[in-house]
């Protein structure tokens, strides 16, 4: 399952972020997925339940946000939002567009608890 390896690399990023902040308890992970990223949100959520076991995010909630698809037109230079199955310029309807966003998968936010002593030593 493709989503499982996506999850594992996300969890590695989460663990790095937690370590950098001296946290040992991640409470929430927010991931943003573009419709052209090739990742199914529901499958990702299910894979997360499997992959998080034994990690720092074992009790973390997973929020998945959808990113819009945006294209930039080569003809009129407009940047517009468009449905993922219809990549046309929103102003002049040209098909000569470059994808600006919508194919990415981002770790948007990691929420964690930081213990008081760790916070004190960090300051
Ligand atoms: Zn255009």
Distance between the termini: 42 Å
The CATH class of the domain at 2-69 and 101-114 is Alpha Beta
CATH topology of the domain at 2-69 and 101-114: hypothetical protein PF0899 fold
Task: Summarize the main sheet.
Answer: 3 strands, mixed
Net shape = elongated
Helix-strand topology string: HEHEEEEEH
The helicity comes to 25-40%
Low-confidence stretches: none
Output the radius of gyration: 18 Å
| Proportion of beta-strand residues | 25-35%
Strand order of the largest sheet: 2-1-6
What ligands are attached or bound here?
A: zinc ion
CATH architecture verdict of the domain at 2-69 and 101-114? 2-Layer Sandwich
Number of strands: 6
The overall pLDDT, averaged over residues, is: 92
What does this structure look like?
The protein is an alpha+beta fold. It has a domain at 2-69 and 101-114: 2-Layer Sandwich (hypothetical protein PF0899 fold). It is built from three helices and six strands. The strands form two sheets. The protein has a three-stranded mixed beta sheet, covered by helices on one side. Strand 3 (70-73) and strand 4 (79-81) form a beta hairpin. Helix 1 (2-20) packs across helix 2 (41-51).
